[in-house]
C-alpha cells in the first residue's frame, strides 16, 4: 500500500464529512468533469454488505442493514451514510444513462455473485482486507459494519484515433464509518464471469487529525498500477489533479442547480454516435461559408443532433414503434441541425426569417424555408411529432405553446439562449437566482402550464448556455384539452399583466382544437373571442398575444463595417495623430531599419501596437481561416508604411501588407471577377 497524494482541506463552512461524500458522488457519477478522456459513468446496481472477519471461515453479506450490537453504527456515522448514499440514488432505477443506480435484475445478480466470490477470497488476503478497512496491513480490522457496494461502468470517450473503446467496469466499496471509498477494477474470467483484478486498485480516504481534515489517495499495490492514459491515468494525476478537485468539491457550499450532463439518455450510446457523426460531417468545417466560427457551430450542432437522435431512438423503444419521428426546427438559422437529422432518416424541415448562404450547399433532401413565425392559429403543426427550438430567441417561450396546441401527440425540445418573454425581453423577478436559472425556470413553467411533463438536461456542447428542456409527455388526458387550453390562454395573458377581458383589447384566442370543442360549450373560451365581425379566417391570423414581433429579416449592422471608408480612414488618422503627440503623419522612413519605433502614448495606457512584439496565437486557427492568410498576402497597402513617421516596424518580407504600390497583388475577389468575365 502506498499513498500517492494527501492534502489538507480547509472547512470554514463545516461541510465535512458530508461534503466529502458529495464529492465522491461526483467522481462516481460524472467522472468526465475531472478526467476529460472519459465520457461518463453508469451506476448499475447497489447493495449493502459487510467485510468478513479475518479469523472467520466465510464472509457475511446482507441485502440491507443486518448489524449486531458490536457493529451498530453510531448516530454521527448514520448521518455520514445518508450523505454518502444520497448522490447514488439520484436517478430513477432501470433507466439507461441515469446518474442514479440502475437496479436491473442482471446487474444486481452480477453484483451479488461478484461480492460473494470476492469476500470469500478476502479470508486469505489480509493485506486487501486491511486496505478495504482503512487500516494498516497486518492490523486487525475493527468490528464489522455495513458497507455500500456499487457496480459501476465507466464509459470512455471515443476519438478518430480510438474509435471503439470498451467500457471499463468497477466494483466500488464505500465505507462511510472509516471514510474510505475503494475502486476495484473488474475483468472476465475464462468462463465469462466477472472477477476483481488485483491491479489498478486505488482508494480515496477522508481522515481527521488534530481538528484538521485530510483527503488522501492510496494505491493498493504500486507495482501493479498499469496506466492506460484513459480510465487509469498516471499516479501523479491521481495524487495531484484528482485530489485537488475532490478537495475543492468537498467544501463547495452551493450546488450548481443544474442536472448532470446527459442525464436523460444513454451516455454510452451518445458517445459512440457522436464520434461517428462528427467524423461523417467534419468536412462542413472546411467549406463553411458563414462569418461565424465553423468549428464551434458545426460540432455544436453535431452534438445537439446526436442528443436528439438518441433521445428519439429510446422513445421509439419505449413506445414500441419503428417509424422515425418527424420534426420542425423553428428558427433554424444555418440549418445544419435540420440537415443532419434529415440525413439520418428523420423527416422534417426548418424555418427561419432569413435565408443563409449555406442553405444552397445541403441539397434538395434538406427542407429549409424562409419565412416569419408568428404565434397564431396558422402556425400549428398537427402532423409533426417534435418541435425544436435551438437558440430560437423570441420564439423560445412560444414553442411549448405551439406544440401543445398543434396536437396532443406533439412534443418539444428547446435550448434557451437569449432571454425573451412572450412579448419583448424577459424581465428578471428573482434576485436570488442567476438570470439564466430564472429564465430556465420560466420556460419550464410555460411547459408545465401547457400540460407537459418538462424534463431538464445538460448537453455536452461548447457553450455556456447548454441546458435543454424536453416535453415528451402530457400531464392530462386528451378529454381535458379544452380546460387546459383555457389555462394556457389565462397564463399567456397574465404575462402582460392584463385580465381576460380588458377594455379595448381582446384576450389571446384559443387553439383550433379548443375552439372546435367550445362550439358545443357556450361558456367555453371560444365564446370570449367569438364576437360579431370576427370570421374564422380573421381569428386564424390574429396573434395569440398582441405585441409580438418576430426578429427583423435584415440584420442591423452594429459596428463600423458599413461606414464610408473615407470617414473611417479620417478617424484612424486623427486617433493616431493624438497618440503620436501631434507629429505629421505623412511620408515614411526605411521600414524595419530603426531600432526604436514610436508607439505613441496617451495617459500611459493607450499606444499603437508594435508588431515586432506580436506573439504567435496559442489556439490553432480553424482551417477555413488559415486558408485566407496566403490568399490575402500583399493585397492591401500597409498603413504604417504610408502614414507612420517611422514607417512600418516590420521588414517588407515579414509584413503581410504591401510596402508600396510595387508589392501589391490582385485580391482574391478581383481574380474571381476576372475568371467569371
UniProtKB/TrEMBL annotation:
Domain C3H1-type: 632-662
EC number(s) on file: 2.1.1.211
One Pfam family this sequence matches: AdoMet_MTase
Segments of this protein annotated with the region Disordered: 52-104, 495-535
Catalytic reactions of this protein: uridine(44) in tRNA(Ser) + S-adenosyl-L-methionine = 2'-O-methyluridine(44) in tRNA(Ser) + S-adenosyl-L-homocysteine + H(+)
Ranges of compositional bias, category Low complexity: 82-99, 507-521
Highest taxon above the source species: Eukaryota
InterPro entries in UniProt: SAM-dependent_MTases_sf, tRNA_uracil_MeTrfase, Znf_CCCH
Zinc finger (C3H1-type) boundaries: 632-662
Localization: Cytoplasm
The keyword Nucleotidyltransferase belongs to this UniProt entry's keyword annotation: no
Family: Belongs to the TRM44 family.
Job of this protein: Adenosyl-L-methionine (AdoMet)-dependent tRNA (uracil-O(2)-)-methyltransferase. Probable adenosyl-L-methionine (AdoMet)-dependent tRNA (uracil-O(2)-)-methyltransferase.
Protein name stated in the entry: tRNA (uracil-O(2)-)-methyltransferase
Organism for this UniProt entry: Equus przewalskii (Przewalski's horse)
Amino acid at each position: 500500500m502506498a499513498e500517492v497524494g494527501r492534502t489538507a482541506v480547509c472547512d470554514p463552512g463545516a461541510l465535512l464529512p458530508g461534503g466529502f461524500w458529495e464529492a465522491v458522488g461526483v467522481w462516481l457519477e460524472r467522472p468526465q468533469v475531472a478526467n476529460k478522456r472519459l465520457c461518463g459513468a453508469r451506476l448499475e446496481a447497489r447493495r449493502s454488505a459487510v467485510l468478513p472477519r479475518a479469523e472467520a471461515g466465510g464472509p457475511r453479506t446482507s441485502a440491507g442493514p443486518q448489524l449486531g450490537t458490536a457493529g451498530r453504527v453510531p448516530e454521527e456515522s448514520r448521518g455520514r451514510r445518508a450523505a454518502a448514499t444520497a448522490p447514488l440514488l439520484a436517478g430513477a432505477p432501470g433507466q439507461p444513462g441515469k446518474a442514479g443506480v440502475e437496479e436491473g435484475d442482471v446487474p444486481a445478480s452480477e453484483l451479488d455473485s461478484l461480492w460473494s466470490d470476492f469476500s470469500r477470497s478476502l479470508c486469505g488476503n489480509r493485506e486487501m482486507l486491511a486496505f478495504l478497512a482503512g487500516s494498516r496491513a497486518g492490523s486487525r480490522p475493527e468490528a464489522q459494519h455495513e458497507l455500500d457496494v456499487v457496480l459501476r461502468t465507466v464509459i470512455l470517450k471515443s476519438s478518430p484515433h480510438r474509435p471503439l473503446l470498451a467500457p471499463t467496469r468497477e466494483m466500488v466499496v464505500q465505507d462511510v464509518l472509516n471514510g474510505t471509498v475503494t475502486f476495484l477494477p473488474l475483468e472476465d474470467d475464462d468462463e465469462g464471469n466477472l472477477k476483481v483484478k488485483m491491479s489498478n486498485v486505488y482508494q480515496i480516504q477522508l481522515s481527521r487529525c488534530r481538528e484538521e481534515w485530510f483527503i488522501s489517495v492510496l494505491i493498493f499495490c504500486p507495482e501493479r498500477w498499469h496506466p492506460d492514459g484513459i480510465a487509469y491515468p498516471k499516479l501523479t494525476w491521481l495524487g495531484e489533479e484528482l485530489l485537488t478537485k475532490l478537495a475543492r468539491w468537498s467544501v463547495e457550499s452551493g450546488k450548481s442547480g443544474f442536472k448532470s450532463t446527459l442525464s436523460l439518455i444513454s451516455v454510452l450510446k451518445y458517445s459512440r454516435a457522436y464520434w461517428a457523426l462528427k467524423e461523417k460531417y467534419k468536412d462542413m468545417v472546411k467549406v463553411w461559408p458563414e462569418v461565424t466560427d465553423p468549428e464551434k457551430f458545426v460540432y455544436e450542432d453535431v452534438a445537439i443532433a446526436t442528443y436528439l437522435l438518441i433521445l428519439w431512438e429510446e422513445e421509439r423503444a419505449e413506445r414500441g414503434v419503428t417509424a422515425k419521428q418527424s420534426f420542425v426546427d423553428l428558427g433554424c438559422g444555418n440549418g445544419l441541425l435540420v440537415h443532419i437529422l434529415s440525413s439520418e432518416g428523420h423527416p422534417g424541415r426548418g424555418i427561419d426569417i432569413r435565408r443563409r448562404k449555406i442553405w444552397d450547399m445541403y441539397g434538395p433532401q434538406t427542407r429549409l424555408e424562409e419565412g416569419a413565425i408568428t404565434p397564431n392559429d396558422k402556425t400549428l403543426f398537427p402532423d409533426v411529432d417534435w418541435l425544436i427550438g435551438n437558440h430560437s430567441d423570441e420564439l423560445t417561450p412560444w414553442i411549448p405553446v405551439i406544440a401543445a396546441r398543434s396536437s396532443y401527440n406533439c412534443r418539444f425540445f428547446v435550448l434557451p439562449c437569449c432571454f425573451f418573454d412572450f412579448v419583448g425581453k424577459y424581465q428578471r423577478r428573482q434576485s436570488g437566482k442567476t438570470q439564466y436559472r430564472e429564465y430556465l425556470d420560466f420556460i419550464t413553467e410555460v411547459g408545465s402550464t401547457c400540460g407537459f411533463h418538462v424534463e431538464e438536461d445538460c448537453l455536452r456542447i461548447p457553450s455556456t448556455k447548454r441546458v435543454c428542456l424536453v416535453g415528451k409527455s402530457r400531464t392530462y388526458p386528451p378529454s381535458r384539452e379544452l380546460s387546459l387550453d383555457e389555462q394556457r390562454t389565462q397564463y399567456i395573458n397574465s404575462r402582460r399583466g392584463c385580465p381576460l377581458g380588458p377594455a379595448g383589447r381582446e384576450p389571446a384566442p384559443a387553439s383550433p382544437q379548443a375552439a372546435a370543442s367550445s362550439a358545443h360549450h357556450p361558456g367555453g373560451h371560444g365564446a370570449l373571442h367569438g364576437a360579431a365581425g370576427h370570421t374564422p379566417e380573421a381569428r386564424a391570423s390574429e396573434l395569440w398575444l398582441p405585441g409580438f414581433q418576430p426578429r427583423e429579416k435584415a440584420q442591423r449592422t452594429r459596428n463600423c463595417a458599413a461606414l464610408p471608408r473615407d470617414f473611417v480612414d479620417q478617424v484612424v488618422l486623427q486617433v493616431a495623430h493624438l497618440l503620436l503627440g501631434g507629429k505629421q503623419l505623412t511620408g515614411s522612413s526605411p521600414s524595419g531599419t530603426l531600432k526604436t519605433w514610436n508607439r505613441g502614448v496617451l495617459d500611459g495606457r493607450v499606444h499603437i501596437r508594435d508588431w515586432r512584439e506580436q506573439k504567435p496565437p496559442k489556439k490553432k486557427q480553424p482551417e477555413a481561416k488559415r486558408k485566407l492568410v496566403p490568399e490575402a498576402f500583399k493585397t492591401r497597402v500597409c498603413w504604417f508604411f504610408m502614414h507612420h513617421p517611422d514607417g512600418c516596424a516590420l521588414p517588407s518580407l515579414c509584413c503581410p501588407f504591401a510596402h508600396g504600390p510595387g508589392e501589391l497583388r490582385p485580391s482574391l475577389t478581383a481574380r474571381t471577377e476576372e475568371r467569371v468575365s
